[in-house]
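Give me the fold.
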Amino acid sequence: MTTRSDPDHPDSLLESFLSAEGFDPDPFQLDSFSALDAGRNLLVSAPTGSGKTLVGEYAAHRALSGGGRCFYTTPIKALSNQKFRQFRARFGPENVGLLTGDHSIDPEAPVVVMTTEVLRNMIYSGSPALHDLDCVVMDEIHYLGDRSRGVVWEEIILTLDPAVRLVGLSATLSNTDELGDWITEIRGDTAVVLSDHRPVPLAHMLYTDGELIPVRAAADHRRRSRSGYHDERMAARPRAQWARRQDVIEKLDDERLLPAIYFVFSRAGCDGAVSQMRRARLRLTTVEESRRIAAHVDAACAPVPHHDLDALDFTAFRAGLVGGIAAHHAGMLPLFRTIVEELFSAGLIKVVFATETLALGIHMPARAVVLEKTTKFNGDTHAMLTSAEYSQITGRAGRRGIDTKGTAVVLDQQDLDLDALSALVDTPRFPLRSAFTPDYSMAVNLVEQLGVAEATSLIGRSFAQFQTDRTLVSRSRAVERRADERDRLRADLEAAGGGPDLDQYMALRADLSRLERSAEKTTRDDRLDAVRAAMLKQTPGSVITVGRKRFGMVATVLQVRTDIPADPALLCLTDTGWTGWLRRHDFAAPPVPVGRVDLPRGRRKLDGRAKSALLHRMEGMRGKAKGRLKGAGGKPVRKDPRIAPARRALRQHPLHEDPGIDRLARLHERWARADADTTALAAGVDADSDSLARRFRRIVDLLEHLGYLEQRDGALRATDAGRLLAGVHTEQDLFVAECLRRGVWRGLDPAGLAAVIATVVAHPRGDSAVREPTDESLRSALARTERAAAELAAVEESHQLPPTPDLDAGLAPVMHHWVSGGALASILAASWQEGVELTAGDFVRSARLVVDVLAQIGQVAEPDLARVARSAVGSLRRGVVLDHLV
């Protein structure tokens, strides 16, 4: 007799699984279930919140019912912890385990939730846990494109036993079929299920003048009334930022759009917003909700020492939660972030001010999301959100089974590009580009398991090479077409009388043009540097000259923005009545102060009377400004001494006075462009063809040169040092192995070893000036570490590989103090005194990076150092670093 969970009867198996759901599956889920029942690999691409996790749960259910095992991988530990709790509730505690590096709970269970790095390490070590593995679910498989960690996803797909079924769950991609084709090529028959349908429809709204207007309607209105739009918005006189945030929240509350996630894109901005709302006495919870929140927070934080809670300003954190308001960002203590996630998911927290890290996988849906800006700082400048970022963020709006729609709200800003915003709204998909590149530990593991030839072939089958190869045919044809055109143009040129003399003459012209362009760029850069330096000296109330190319005017500085020192901005009111931000390129000459005025207090925008008064004051300064504009050219122009000789050589050439030279020059320029294009295109094709395999072979050569690989019995095999390297998994894998081999860290105590490892793997967010340590052994070890880094970088450069050692001692004193028993309060205070930007969350995350590497050293190093590493791990794992998330 067949039971309902018999895997040989998929209808009964699916029926038993769905009986606990209470809703009918969507078509894409049914298609996914059918593919799993047919024994196929599966790739699912669907919007955030559409129910992809149900597909992964069914894969686990099938494995359980058939007596096999299922590994469910996630990109981050917090998501693993969340899935672990959900799966235990669904499948029973006895059937679900957890492996994240921090935690190992029932690792022999039939269903194990883990981070992708854990699975990668299990594959390379040949773990016995893989023997009865039935399937692997890779949640958030689009992380494959992550620059720092995406390589792990490809390593797993490439090296996992082909008999193990793969289930990939992804956000909505524009090239899902391409990813599916690659997985099919690597692992066999793969079903690709694509859905654009959101179970909860998403409305995109613009908040402007206290109203919510559909984004597309606002963009259409702007196009129809483009001439008066700026003046209309400038006259709106929006309230100060803190008051405006309160207005937005109250509007959302009035429209029954809470709970909401309010994205700010700045850690300090998130914390500041919570403080602002508390000062404004905004309270969004009932008495009963406040009581439940307080009880939950107090219970969750009970294990944390009181002195640590004081250092973390726990009282303010708790007060915000009780009022229904919280922050969520990477700088927070992980325990605090988990409390926020739990309370928000329970509907008790009404507004969370968050950075974009909240959008990366944590299941925390809201009725609405708010974007304060559509730009964020990317390390160099403030750039527009990509379609991927906007899709991930707004995908949090709308709770399935609770809301009939989700709402994404963008706040109107003076410089908001509504056309660009409309394009984001209309582009819910984004392309996935592989970030795969081979590294040292991977190379040793692959060579040891497969041999050089098969390992090289495996690298060549990566998604990165797959994507490159797909374009090579069309690019090769483009090279051929451009080469044919080049040859035809050369024949035409020679038929017109062009020859070697013309080539020589045109080379002289090209050299002169290059020198003149370089001189112009130098002059322009000098001017912009002078303008930037002058802008940084301005303060609100300064009246300055604004020298433009065709006219000059004066302007009053209302606000100075220097958050990006390389690109400062001045909010100005000009004497023409225009108000707006001016940047370096808006000035033809450095701004010169011509006077000062008193600005109205407590206002960011000027009302009509104050504006008129300022304009009147500036009118009287125009005469003074005209005189100063004449001599405000910045630094004198630097002349290139090579330009004059180049001009003489050109004039002395026999062809310079030839009456037909202009026609010949035009023909030559057309041929030269075609020749340069052909060379560049061919070089690009050659560089990309087999590019990853070539890099892999360079890595193998370097590892053989350093003694990590050696020829043995006619094959290249790992040495003892190679096996040590194979057990190190960090971006600095080879450098850590080199330091262990050389004994660079021998003789250190646990605190010193933790400090040195922090120098290698845990860097502060900003630049810091660190005092030299007083401990002689630590000072000596740091010096040896720096020498080893320089020597390894030189070897990598000689093998045409980028240098990997990247040392920063900013957090070394912090880790040394903590392992020595220091208190959290003193660590945070000392870090600020040292000029290191460190929050509790940064410290815990850095400590865990150090713990991870120390734990690996404890496994692979020589006995004495291994004991020190394990002791350092024990000393690091205390207080807030013990933060349990399960």
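Confidence is low (pLDDT under 50) at residues 1-5, 227-240.
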